[in-house]
Design goal:
The structure holds 2 protein chains of 2 kinds.
Chain A lengths: L1 H12 L15 H6 L3 H29 L10 H36 L7 H9 L1 H10 L27 H28 L12 H32 L13 H18 L2 H15 L6 H14 L15 H13 L1 H15 L8 H24 L1 H7 L3 H31 L5 H28 L13 H29 L38
Helix pairs in contact in A: 3-4, 3-5, 3-18, 4-7, 4-16, 5-7, 6-7, 7-8, 8-9, 8-10, 8-11, 10-13, 10-14, 10-16, 11-13, 13-14, 14-16, 14-17, 16-17, 17-18
Chain B lengths: L1 H14 L2 H5 L18 H34 L15 H29 L7 E8 L2 E6 L4 E5 L5 H4 L17 E4 L4 E7 L4 E5 L4 E5 L5 E5 L5 E7 L11 E7 L1 H25 L6 H15 L1 H4 L17 H4 L2 H10 L15 H13 L11 H8 L3
Parallel strand pairs in B: 1-5, 4-10
Antiparallel strand pairs in B: 1-2, 2-3, 5-8, 6-7, 6-9, 9-10
Helix pairs in contact in B: 1-6, 3-4, 7-11, 11-12
The chains are: A mainly alpha, B alpha+beta.
């Protein structure tokens, strides 16, 4: 809470004359409950995401403990399925997405020279409904029969006719998450469209703002589709409809089309802001302007558009007509072109720069290499005939953890280390942070790289037990998993120290090569910034 | 009476005799790193495509990461390197958009060819209807009078770490699918409940089993042998315990096998009819009933009959298993629509049905003393 009062005090001393903010200084819990300040809400989102990351991570530890050796040792298969399901839901909707929304809250107004988000009360609301969504979801695990056990993708009819009654709670909680995301996205779009500082034209916007703007449009386009899917699951299960039941004229594969029409843009929702973050960090620590700014913007937009026409590559084994399989294969392969452009641009930015390797840069470099490995396996998965072999094996698990953990989550960690000194005014504990980086880097690869091998050798995903052939690698994978889990406690230590304002004070720019409006304001960033808009040249 | 049961047991053992053969195949390399080449022309093509993709990715990776590492090594501030000023180049940017595009076309052509070949299910030599249900496969030979269920054969004690795990732990079934080599075998794949996915890596065949719809896949196996796979789509609690085992035999051997199976199944049906006029002993029913229960029912209702609260109902002390006998027989035969309870009327024989009903009405303190005979089940089945 010391962070709270410190910032509030600084704010009281800060010279401003914004009358409707005059009542903003309640202390204690009410400050956080009623806050409409983008920085407070950003902090709330980020801590919430981190707590969810730890809870979802604890579930991953249960999964890895059970898979440490063949046979059933720790949990029964039904509970195992609940763990894989809720782990996925928490990490996607509770950790990665709220973390990016938290970063957007903190950074978008500061980067475009706006005093706050455009719709501050809705901003408060969109955060505060989230804890309830996850209370409902996690609470359902404690009901008789347990929580959702049909995978985060909740394919019908496993999630309808064959699920237990807690499905209603699952549906309700996903609805709340969706409403929260849509409100967050509306806020981002309205803010960026209306509140840019004079002179900040579209093609002068920082890339984090650009990528988030495009992400926000993706969110608005697909979260209602998810809401539709869960509602149909609800009515199929409880009200006798047959959307996904052939006996009533429906089709279970229809569910997958609807789900992945949401699901594929969703995976770009979780990676586009990461592209933005990396496009800030690489130039800073290369002390050189980002290579190909315009092509970065166009590449992001192309990826977003392509994301709407590739969904069925998740469904190659469902028995689609060969023409559809060819279309989705070609469209999916195309995504590697704009994604490649991004990676090439980052490498070209580094080329003949003047590089240093501070903690944010370490995470950003690890991101580029490891995300690209995930991209390669993604390209392999696009090839339909081979996807028949890869589909639903650990090869897929390896692929999406490379893009989501060493991709999205590494970018979030990079972002936190990059902007944390700006938020707190103090440099974080660099030694601990480096330990965090190196422990995470080594363990995450021990965790996810051998998954490629067991997947290719034929180990299906979502199984609580496996044949003896896979025993050795799974042991190593589990050890990597425990080590990666423990490494995140170092991150927790860094964050606690930072929130207590320990560390050396930093200057306004913090990093030598940092460019952008957020580095022009004092460190720590005052409670209210840009009451008078800056002029961008 | 005892004799009849023994002969039935022998029959069942003979039906599953090829399970013995299945267990002789050696287990796989624990350090297998790569995709299998498999045993069909298609699986070989798929493997080649996989290696082509992999090689292209590695080459691109080495180049891109190589440039990156050179830059990280040479262009660092600690070496006194001064930053250059360039930040765009139309030529370079066009090049690294167009070149990857050309590489993609190079990948797409062979991929499309293989895909089109894989999806050509026309002109099969024979067809097998593959039906998934929680958690077993059913195989029906469309051109012969042979059909049977194929269940996991690994003992529960191995899974629970009470016995040492066998060589083919979780990859062994009581009755594998048997197909001829060198012939185009078409698989018609569907499901009775949730979505399953029938997968044999050595054939490069993985196809979802969707309830209410039939998918097609095919294979021509070149080598006789035992090929193992698993269900690939999350299908509920025992998704991990739903293996696929296929034995490929020389065509002559296959013909012999399938004729023998048809005869045995005919014989079993006749045996069933004879049972209708007989009464079985309580002790025989209980013994058979326990075996049937552990194989078919224990996955959901649990070995102790207590079920999983909120998911699968308990049989111990339930009003159905302790009082309402006609309802009990009816549920077992016809299942319960809208739940995971399957219709066992077509899965088990009359004697097995009567035995398992007798068992569940008398085990775990249910002690109703009821004895259900095959003819009682037959009566309910035929609406008498």
């Amino acid at each position: 809470m010391s962070t709270a009062t410190d910032t509030a005090n600084e704010d009281l001393q800060h010279d401003h004359h914004d009358d409707h903010h005059a009542h903003h200084a309640p202390s204690g819990i009410t400050r956080w409950l009623f806050t409409t300040n983008h920085k407070d809400i950003g902090t709330l989102y980020l801590w919430f995401a981190f707590i969810m990351f730890l809870i979802g991570g604890a579930m991953a530890m249960v999964i890895r403990a059970e898979l440490f050796q063949p046979g059933l040792q720790i949990v029964d298969p039904n509970f195992f399925n609940q763990m894989t399901t809720v782990h996925g839901l928490i990490m996607v909707f509770g950790a990665v997405m709220p973390a990016f929304t938290g970063l957007a809250n903190w950074l978008v107004p500061m980067m475009i020279g706006a005093p706050d988000m455009a719709l501050p009360r809705m901003n408060n609301w969109s955060f505060w409904i989230l804890p309830f969504a996850f209370l409902i979801l996690i609470g359902s695990l404690f009901l008789p029969g347990g929580g959702p056990n049909f995978g985060w993708t909740f394919y019908a009819p496993l999630s309808t006719t064959y699920s237990n009654d807690s499905t209603a709670l699952f549906v309700f909680s996903v609805h709340i998450m969706g409403i929260s995301s849509i409100m967050g996205a509306i806020n981002v779009i309205v803010t960026i469209f209306n509140m840019r500082a004079p002179g900040m034209t579209w093609m002068k916007m920082p890339l984090f703002v650009w990528t988030w703007l495009i992400t926000a449009f993706l969110l608005i386009a697909v979260m209602p589709v998810l809401a539709g899917a869960v509602t149909m699951v609800l009515t199929d299960k409880f009200f006798g409809t047959s959307f996904f039941d052939a006996a009533g004229g429906g089709d279970p594969v229809l569910f997958q089309h609807i789900f992945w029409f949401f699901g594929h843009p969703e995976v770009y929702i979780m990676i586009l802001p990461a592209f933005g973050i990396i496009s800030h960090i690489i130039p800073t620590f290369s002390r050189k302007k980002l290579f190909g700014y315009a092509s970065m913007v166009y590449a992001t937009a192309s990826i977003a558009l392509l994301s709407f026409i590739v969904w069925a590559h998740h469904m190659f084994t469902t028995g689609m007509p060969v023409g559809a399989e060819l279309f989705f294969m070609f469209a999916t392969m195309l995504i590697s072109v704009p994604t490649g452009v991004k990676v090439f641009n980052w490498v070209a930015t580094m080329w003949r720069g003047s590089m240093t390797f501070e903690v944010p840069m370490l995470f950003a470099l690890a991101f580029i290499i490891l995300f690209t490995i995930g991209g390669f396996s993604g390209l392999m998965l696009a090839i339909t005939p081979v996807d028949f072999q890869y589909h639903d094996t650990y090869f897929v698990v390896a692929h999406f953890h490379y893009v989501l953990v060493t991709g999205a989550i590494f970018s979030i960690m990079a972002a936190v280390y990059y902007w944390l000194p700006k938020w707190t005014g103090k440099m974080f504990d660099v030694t601990l942070a480096k330990w965090h980086f190196w422990c995470s880097l080594i363990s995450v690869n021990l965790l996810f790289f051998p998954m490629h091998f067991v997947g290719l050798a034929g180990m299906p995903r979502r199984i609580p037990d496996y044949s003896l052939q896979f025993a050795d690698f799974n042991k190593w994978i589990s050890i990597g998993g425990f080590a990666f889990g423990l490494s995140q406690l170092i991150f927790l230590a860094v964050l606690i120290k930072a929130s207590r304002k320990q560390g050396e004070p930093v200057d306004d720019r913090v990093w030598e090569g940092a460019e952008g409006l957020e580095w022009e304001i004092p460190s720590p960033a005052p409670y209210h910034t840009f009451d008078t808009p800056p002029v961008v040249k | 009476m005892k004799k009849t049961l023994t002969s039935l047991t022998i029959l069942l053992t003979m039906l599953s005799s090829h399970a013995v053969l299945a267990e002789t195949a050696s287990s796989k390399d624990p350090y297998q790193l790569n995709l299998t080449k498999g045993v069909t022309d298609i699986s070989q093509q798929v493997y080649d495509l996989h290696m082509l993709m992999f090689t292209i990715c590695v080459v691109i990776g080495v180049i891109v990461f190589g440039v990156m590492f050179i830059s990280m090594f040479l262009h660092r501030k600690s070496k006194g390197h001064k930053p250059a000023n360039f930040h765009e180049s139309v030529k370079v940017e066009v090049a690294w958009t167009v070149v990857p595009f050309i590489i993609l076309i190079f990948m797409a052509v062979p991929a499309a060819k293989t895909l089109i070949a894989m999806e050509d299910t026309t002109a099969p030599d024979m067809s097998v209807l593959v039906t998934g249900s929680q958690w077993k496969w059913h195989y029906k030979y469309m051109d012969h009078d042979v059909e049977y269920y194929s269940l996991l054969a690994t003992q529960r004690e191995q899974i629970n770490n009470k016995f040492a795990k066998g060589e083919n732990y979780l990859l062994e079934v009581d009755r594998p699918l048997v197909i001829p080599t060198g012939q185009k075998v078409r698989f018609l794949i569907t499901s009775d409940d949730v979505i399953h996915s029938w997968w044999v890596p050595d054939f490069a065949v993985k196809k979802d089993a969707n309830p209410g719809f039939i998918n097609e896949a095919w294979t021509v196996v070149n080598e006789p042998g035992v090929y193992r796979g698993q269900c690939a789509e999350l299908c509920g609690k025992d998704h991990g315990y739903m293996p696929v085992v296929v034995i490929a035999k020389e065509p002559a051997e296959f013909e012999q096998w399938v004729a023998q199976q048809a005869a045995l199944q005919q014989q079993a049906r006749e045996e069933e009819q004879r049972l209708l006029s007989m009464n079985m002993e309580m002790s025989d029913l209980m013994a058979t009933g326990e075996r049937v229960y552990q194989t078919n029912c224990a996955a959901c209702h649990m070995p102790n009959g207590e079920g999983l609260p909120g998911v699968f109902p308990a049989l111990k002390g339930s009003p159905i298993t302790t009082a309402d006998k006609p309802a009990h027989i009816d549920i077992l035969i016809n299942g319960r629509t809208g739940t995971a309870m399957q219709a066992f009327g077509k899965q088990l024989s009359l004697s097995e049905l009567s035995a398992v009903i007798t068992y569940t009405r008398n085990a775990w303190g249910n002690n109703t003393g009821d004895v259900v005979q095959p003819k009682d089940v037959y009566a309910v089945m035929n609406g008498q």
